[in-house]
Sequence to fold (877 residues):
Amino acid sequence: MKLSEKAEEILEALWIAVEEEGARFLDPERMGFPADDPAYKELTGHTLVEIRQGMVYFRPEGREEGKMTIRRHRLAERLMMDVLNLRGDAGDDKACQFEHLLNEGVDIKICTMLNHPATCPHGKPIPPGECCADARAQGDLGVVALTEFKSGQEGEIAYIQTKDDKKMQKLMAMGVLPGNRIVLVQSYPSYIFRVGFSEFAIDSNLAKEIFVRK
Amino acid sequence: MATGCGKQAEAPGKSPNIKRVALVGNPNVGKSVLFNALTGSYVTVSNYPGTSVEVSRGHAVINDQSWEVIDTPGMYSIHTITEEERVAREILLHETPDVVLHVLDARNLERMLAMTLQLIEAGLPVILVVNIMDEAERMGLTFDLELLRQRLGIPVIGAATTRKRGLDEIRSAIVAYRHDPENPPHFAYSRLLEHDINEVAGLMVGEYILSRRALALLLLQQDEEITALVRRREGEGFAVIAEKVREIAFNRRGSFHLDLSLERKDIVKKLILGVFTSPEKRVVTWAERLSCMSVRPLTGIPLLLIVLYFGLYKFVGDFGAGTLVDILEQKLFVGIFNPWITGVVKMIIPWEVIQELFVGEYGIITLGIRYAVGIILPIVATFFIFFSFLEDTGYFPRLALLVDRIFKRFGLTGRAVIPMVLGFGCDTMATMVTRTLETTRERVIATVLLSLTIPCSAQLGVILALLSKFPGALAVWGTCLLLLFVVVGLLAARIMPGEAPMFYMELPPMRLPQISNVLTKTYTRMQWYFLEILPLFVLASILLWLGKITGFFGKLITAMTPVMASIGLPRETAVAFIFGFFRRDYGAAGLYELQTKGLMDARQLTVAAVTLTLFIPCVAQFLIMKKERGWKVAGGIGVFVSLLAFGSGYVLNQFLLMTRLLS
Ligand SMILES: Nc1nc2c(ncn2[C@@H]2O[C@H](COP(=O)(O)OP(=O)(O)OP(=O)(O)O)[C@@H](O)[C@H]2O)c(=O)[nH]1
Ligand SMILES: [Mg+2]
Ligand SMILES: [Zn+2]
Ligand SMILES: [Zn+2]
Fold:
């Protein structure tokens, strides 16, 4: 089932209204899409929602679909912020466009790469997918900050998360680049890591910006 | 790309016969060792990144040709972040070296080749020196440098400069170098990046020393200095370039640095395929084991204590300040030299006033030279030997990471341990070294702490001798200094504006120091030290003598009596404080004399020692402070330190009187 972008947005709004704000239905007036918008037809056609007295209600299948749509939206937000380092309006806009591309297993990949995040950058919960449950069961954390590593543990650098250009350059000059292998040699009193044949000492402020895949 | 045009445009004062070779590369790869080998002069070589903070120039004759050799501070990339890197890049930006030697550390070939690419891309005449081959080979790494030469299209030389290996090849390569600016080797980026570069470079019409391709990349990296340079050079046309750069930056959403680094990494990956092979199993050397020990708190702290005990206490304290001072000052000067020279001077010079100048109570020879050579020389020399040795082992970066958390509370990072420890040798030299700290805030805080609470070794030696008869006094003195260090550090971190600094430091391999380097370094430091202090000593002697014969000295002492009395000291101590104005240790030595005459009790000695230790640093340090920090900051620190010194003396005196702690 491939829904139009508008239809997905209606589902999201309905999900938020019902699941997070405690309403029983969504008022199309408040949505901004008038009730005669074809997107509603599309949703009722897939038996995801029904419309009674001009208000939008979930059907059971729709509730599940809405949850996954919200999940994709919030994962997209996390991706924009954590990896692409887009914040504010730019990040939100991109997230809105991006979420619609996260179908067919792409969301699982991204969720794993982001280490199955529990909240979006605005602090709202991200509904867990199957991947999250699996990961929890296996104790597999996927990508973590270097500060979560144990001494002696080795991994691959996944990305650097920082909004400070200078920090970024410094880390890159030390050979901290996505794809390189990294060994955490020691974590107290300072972090010592090895990339290639060089060792560097950094403080926790820098270490927490390096994300590593085990 | 034809980018080498205008090469001769802006060489400042370049004489036609002298060619230049510039040494550039990452920190701690052996540039300065190579500089010393080529020129026969000596610039400091130490085993930690950031040793050289200034450009050094020297002269070498290679195959009967005269060459100017330029050593630069280490830099991680042509896109510079720190002040030292900027200084190094200046050379590339504004001078036109005939050859650029890119020195790198063989074991880190893969990481450091990215900069070779940048240099080649900038159209510079590059020779690659793959240095420290000896250690790389010991780790089981093998290299096919011939293959690398073919792929890079520039001369590549394997070397171990501390072992004199590869020096001849480097010399021959320098004289044989033929630069073809029209056809530099080309390493292509992805189509998209090439497109961006060409768009920006295509808009530039000015003449530059570096290639437009390199400049375009630097513009896209938002390099401020390059942006300013291009703005100046392009004039009207700059607006269009700036707009284009903005557009590309926007399209890339600020990830340009990362994209570029990743592309370079890919190019390097291909370049070193088959050039560089590492053994299956990592070879763990003794140095690495020692390194591990030194950075774990559980073993590191005991190790630090051992180093301090044997290095500072036994070697500098016992041997330097004890045995050597005893031999030089007591046996040589007081016993033999002074009586002899007094006799000689009295024979040649009939006037007593002039005799006084040379061999009197404050005589240049009997006091000035005796202090300088008899007391200060042995203490400072042993300290510098200890310090240089430690520097060359690579211990300091490890100490830095151990103390980083503590230093952060004082608004500093672990990096500041190097100037702090050096301060125990010579505060003036240490103040100069604060330049290696990253932010102005750190530099000012370090300067304050150095001038206030860190006693230099000469002073430390005298004070230890002075107070050694009263263990309680020594403890009070130490506690006071430590307390002030912590309090002033904590306050400075609160009060001083600016961001909290970040700590990052490359850990060089632990190495067995080369004794020749330790000794040469100690020797050059001693030489510097003496040139700095000897004139002060002579000047002090002359002024004191003048003061004495004109009666001004007596008046000054009388004027200072109330101040001395307010902190509970006898009027004679004013003399020591006047000495102390020139050098703190000189002042401390003055106290020593008073104590031998039995003029002071334990309380007075302690108060005097604390006040004097905190008191104005020596005149030389003040001048350096002024040079490094400017009049305003230096003056401010001077006033602050003096007030705090007397204030602390006053409080301590009241405290001791009240508690009767030392009586
Ligand atoms: N084993 C070995 N050690 C070397 C070699 N060349 C340099 N070193 C050591 O590397 C350390 C750094 O040397 P320097 O010449 O100070 O390095 P630099 O590149 O000038 O460093 P900065 O001034 O910090 O940029 C010193 O401890 C040298 O003894 C070499 O060929 N073999
Ligand atoms: Mg150097
Ligand atoms: Zn959100
Ligand atoms: Zn998940």
Q: What stands out?
A: Chain B has two domains: 4-176, 297-659.
